[in-house]
Amino acid sequence: MPRRTKKTPRYFEDLKIGEFWEAPSRTHSEALFYAFQLASGDNRPLHYDMEYCKSLGLPGLVAHGFQVLAQCAPGASDMSRGDTEIRILGMLETSAKFLAPVYSGDTVYPALEIVGLEEQRTTGVMVLRTTVHNQRDELCLEGTLRMLVAKRSRDEAA
Fold this sequence. Notes:
The protein is of the alpha+beta class. The protein contains four helices and eight strands; from the N terminus they run E-E-E-H-H-H-E-E-E-E-E-H.
């Protein structure tokens, strides 16, 4: 069994406003729509019935908002690639505005940028601006993620 490579940790103190990461582009195939329908339990025909969507004049299935928001997961971005790893302890809050639909066959381009750093006594909060553009460079989603990040222990700081 292959061993997991140990990465150099990055703590709250190492982060800087303006740091930017992209997630790999992803084409939203019908299979992805069906998988999300299965996971979410959302059975609205907009998300799985192509004939229904065509009857409404839509070019394809319409992605569920959470299906688009899920593309902004920090672990899917290049934030988690390379030889360092931010010590994220958990997600605290998310908000998103859905500005344009994502249809089956669209390719999305998610990105994350640090727009705020809120120091706390033993941890910190990293505030990320999230965006998802489609292949036509239309902004489909814009929002924020607030992530709890570990600070260095006293032993590590010394």
